[in-house]
Amino acid sequence: TDGNLAKEYIEKEEDVDYDNSIQIKKILRGFVADALLGNWDVYKNDNIILEEGTRTAFRIDNGGSLRYRARGEKKDNFGREVFELQTIKDNNPKLKPYITDKVIKEGIEKILEKKSDILSQISLDEDLKNTVGNRISYLEGVLNEINDRRGTDFVDEDVEVEDVEVEDLEVEV
Question: Given 3-state DSSP classes, what are the helix, strand and coil percentages for the chain, each rounded to the nearest 5?
Answer without folding.
Answer: 45, 5, 50
